[in-house]
């Protein structure tokens, strides 16, 4: 019985899909013999009856409003046309605001088509994936149609036929009031789940324009949190957008230039394998017909349609001009692509009832009243071509708290303006401008270029002339190169804020320069030539964003500066040492607690740990390039041995030997470091952050990359795990070998080192012993620290590199066991030496190691 039911449901789906074999297929072609099974067609006077009662608004469709019911009159010319559903959040309750959902955020985009089925008196709505192309007439086209069919997501009974039967009227309440999820499934899209309570939801209003419909609605649901039922009502705006009949000519992505892209598949009869491409996300910028010849001669001309951003009226007035300036800063980049006045920023029009920041016709920098400290720059894209048709920067009010922290901890030693608990509006505005430029860069299609900071020599960041000439901290504002923490007092450096750079201008030209070609394939040799003109120049290098927890290429990291991260971070440490003694003086206020001192102390600690993470990436790191035919560089280049060795030396000196300048500072007497209302003691902070660094350094994936380098280059040219363990061992066990009493921080360091080896080895070693290694329940302090980011990280990293296969028989197991046995022998020899604390410590090490190696 169950099998029969499944077969019937599948058959129904196949019948529905069989009616949609190609775009523009008319569902009325079904044989008339099935007419007796269909619903009754509308009465001849039904249209006239509706029109008499309705308020009518004309546009892409006619909107017929009768009290609380909404009808679309859809012309036959719209049937089979590509439409894009774009859902936006327009209002949220406290509970969702606190979770990071705010006005201006998109919840879903969906490509749909409407089809009229006269025989069944219905309009069907289908969705499809626009990622597949095939030439008409190729034999394989029939197979493509069969294997990439449209799916039915909704239907509407036809309420009436328009004049001359060239249009139909359908009632659309159910797709907007929460009855159906086909067009707007807000709660599942934000991963909250649950159904909309229809009786507590409603349509607020519908507007129509020549190429889009805008529908606002309230969607209410209820969730249970901690046993308490919590009502939630979200205001949504659904845009139904008419896409052009002929999509914009796409431009193929290239891994050497960082742009968001949409995957696409080409099928042809001539192929011997499927052609897979990616379409760059970009706005449609084209010279006016009368200016094409000027443009071809290299003159700068105005585009047919510029990119216009409106400033949310909710934006505080003191920030508006700097936000607009951040947008306009991109003018120079678009001029490099041959377009002037291509980017416009303006205030929202006053008194225009049709203006709505959630209307797809307007790109808006939306200001969100929220405790979230963030900003982001998403865009709406035509999936058929990669054309950006609208963009919204979401600007959370509390992002200024991040800017304040960055400027304070990274620039206070050289800029007295950054030292106060509250910055001047002028100083904050300069940082707001940089964030505006960064986020707007995303709306042009640009991805993060985390390799841009590597383009600047470290010592050049201390040069007033270099920084004045180049501007900022990197060759691209799309890096996370916040502020210049390398420059030292007395250097005279003034340009310390990120700016639009050389790479940005190159990338915009590469993606946006108009080419008079028929197909994107014709553009490929031209685009490749533009890239190769700058091959080997670090100012034009694109370093893709990686997983910040395990970056493989140390040149492409978040928050770093310069081409020598060890040197840069030593300068950074020098500046942190200048901040710590001044924390109380810079933060204290009459009658106030020392909470601000605790926050600044935590910012210093987070910066110190971030430096350690940057340097760790050198160890077992691989420079990953994107060579093409004729490129002199190799794809994979292990980080040179001397750089890896110097990096471990840095970690020993700045982390494994607990820094007295930080953890013994006077400020701890006034306040512990404070983060999110929690105060952390010095021993706890030092122990947990040091442990996190040990664990990161010693994990198997890193060691396996080091062994891979040895297998490729030979032992003499490689920094091996055995050498690294020896370098660390010789320092942290020096007092033990000398028979001295161990300080609490020395005991802590030895325990952290051993435990990191044991825990990081657990999965590998458990398969070669009778029981698993002992796993301590260690909490990592670093997980509590906020990730300093301006937007949600891209869900991408460099091409997946696989090193961890068959870890249980890798050399990583051997080197870690060898180190444990070495420490065990030392502890057994010294177990009766030193004071009671030291002797207890050795006994503890002996027990830990023997349990781990199943020797008890």
From TrEMBL:
Domain of life: Bacteria
Domain DUF5117 as annotated: residue spans: 104-288
Basic and acidic residues composition-biased segments: 546-558
Chain segments carrying region Disordered: 540-559
EcxA zinc-binding domain sequence ranges: 422-737
DUF5118 domain location: 45-91
Full protein name: Zinc-dependent metalloprotease
């Amino acid at each position: 019985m169950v099998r029969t039911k499944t077969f019937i449901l599948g058959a129904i789906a196949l019948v529905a899909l069989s009616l949609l074999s190609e775009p523009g297929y008319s569902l009325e072609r079904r044989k008339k013999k099935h007419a007796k099974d269909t619903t009754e067609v509308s009465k001849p006077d039904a249209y006239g009856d509706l029109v008499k009662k309705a308020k009518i608004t004309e546009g892409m469709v006619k909107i017929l409003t009768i009290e609380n019911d909404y009808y679309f009159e859809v012309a036959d010319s719209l049937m089979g046309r590509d439409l894009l559903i774009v859902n936006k959040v327009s209002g949220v309750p406290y509970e969702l605001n606190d979770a990071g959902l705010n006005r201006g955020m998109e919840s879903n985009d969906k490509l749909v088509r409407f089809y009229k089925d006269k025989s069944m008196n219905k309009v069907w709505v289908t969705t499809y994936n626009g990622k597949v192309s095939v030439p008409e007439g190729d034999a394989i086209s029939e197979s493509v149609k069969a294997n990439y069919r449209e799916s039915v997501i909704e239907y509407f009974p036809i309420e009436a036929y328009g004049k001359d039967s060239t249009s139909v009227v359908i009632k659309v309440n159910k797709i907007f009031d929460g009855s159906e999820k086909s067009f707007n499934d807000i709660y599942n899209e934000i991963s909250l789940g649950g159904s909309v309570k229809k009786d507590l939801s409603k349509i607020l209003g519908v507007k129509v324009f020549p190429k889009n419909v805008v529908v606002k609605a309230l969607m209410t649901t209820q969730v249970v949190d901690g046993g308490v039922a919590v009502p939630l009502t979200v205001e949504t705006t659904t845009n139904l957008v008419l896409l052009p009949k002929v999509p914009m000519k796409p431009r193929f992505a290239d891994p050497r230039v960082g742009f968001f892209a949409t995957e696409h598949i080409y099928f042809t009869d001539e192929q011997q394998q499927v052609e897979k491409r990616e379409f760059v996300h970009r706005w449609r910028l084209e010279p006016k017909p009368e200016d094409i010849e000027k443009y071809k001669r290299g003159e700068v001309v105005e585009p047919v349609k510029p990119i216009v951003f409106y400033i949310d009226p909710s934006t505080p007035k003191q920030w508006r001009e700097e936000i607009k300036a951040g947008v306009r800063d991109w003018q120079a980049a678009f001029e490099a692509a041959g377009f002037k006045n291509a980017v416009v920023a303006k205030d929202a029009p006053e008194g225009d009832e049709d203006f709505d920041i959630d209307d797809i016709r307007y790109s808006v920098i939306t200001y969100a009243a929220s405790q979230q400290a963030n900003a982001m720059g998403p865009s709406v894209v035509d999936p058929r071509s990669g054309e950006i048709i609208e963009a919204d920067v979401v600007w959370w009010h509390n992002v200024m708290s991040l800017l304040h922290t960055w400027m304070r901890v990274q620039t206070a030693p050289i800029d007295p303006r950054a030292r106060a608990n509250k910055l001047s509006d002028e100083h904050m505005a300069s940082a707001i401008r940089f964030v505006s430029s960064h986020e707007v860069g995303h709306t042009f299609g640009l991805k993060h270029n985390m390799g841009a900071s590597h383009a600047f020599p470290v010592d050049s960041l201390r040069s007033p002339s270099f920084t004045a000439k180049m501007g900022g901290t990197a060759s691209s504002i799309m890096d996370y190169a916040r502020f210049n923490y390398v420059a030292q007092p007395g250097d005279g450096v003034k340009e310390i804020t990120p700016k639009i750079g050389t790479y940005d201008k190159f990338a915009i030209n590469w993606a946006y320069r108009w080419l008079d070609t028929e197909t994107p394939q014709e553009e490929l040799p031209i685009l490749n030539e533009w890239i190769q003109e700058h091959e080997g120049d670090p100012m034009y290098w694109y370093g893709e964003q990686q997983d910040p927890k395990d970056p493989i290429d140390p040149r492409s990291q978040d928050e770093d500066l310069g081409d020598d991260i060890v040197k840069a971070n030593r300068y950074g440490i020098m500046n942190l040492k200048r901040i710590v003694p001044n924390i109380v003086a810079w933060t204290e206020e009459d009658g106030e607690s020392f909470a601000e001192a605790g926050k600044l102390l935590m910012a210093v600690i987070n910066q110190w740990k971030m430096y350690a993470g940057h340097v760790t990436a050198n160890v077992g790191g691989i420079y990953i390039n994107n060579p093409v035919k004729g490129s002199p560089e190799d794809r994979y280049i292990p980080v040179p041995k001397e750089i890896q060795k110097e990096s471990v030396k840095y970690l020993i000196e700045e982390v494994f030997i607990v820094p007295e300048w930080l953890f013994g500072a006077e400020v701890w007497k006034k306040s512990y470091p404070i983060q999110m209302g929690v105060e952390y003691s010095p021993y706890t902070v030092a122990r947990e952050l040091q442990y996190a660094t040990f664990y990161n350094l010693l994990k198997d994936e890193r060691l396996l990359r080091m062994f891979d380098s040895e297998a490729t280059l030979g032992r003499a040219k490689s920094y091996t795990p055995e050498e690294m363990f020896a370098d660390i061992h010789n320092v942290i066990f020096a007092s033990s070998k000398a028979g001295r009493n161990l300080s609490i921080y020395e005991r802590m360091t030895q325990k952290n080192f051993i435990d990191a080896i044991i825990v990081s080895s657990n999965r590998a070693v458990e398969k070669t012993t009778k029981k698993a290694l002992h796993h301590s329940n260690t909490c990592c302090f670093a997980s509590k620290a906020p990730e300093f980011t301006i937007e949600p990280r891209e869900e991408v990293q460099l091409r997946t590199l696989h090193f961890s296969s068959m870890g249980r028989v890798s050399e990583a197991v051997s080197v870690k066991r060898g180190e444990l046995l070495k420490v065990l022998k030392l502890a057994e020899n010294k177990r009766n030496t030193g004071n009671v604390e030291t002797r207890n410590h050795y006994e503890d090490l002996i027990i830990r190691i023997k349990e781990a190696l199943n020797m008890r």
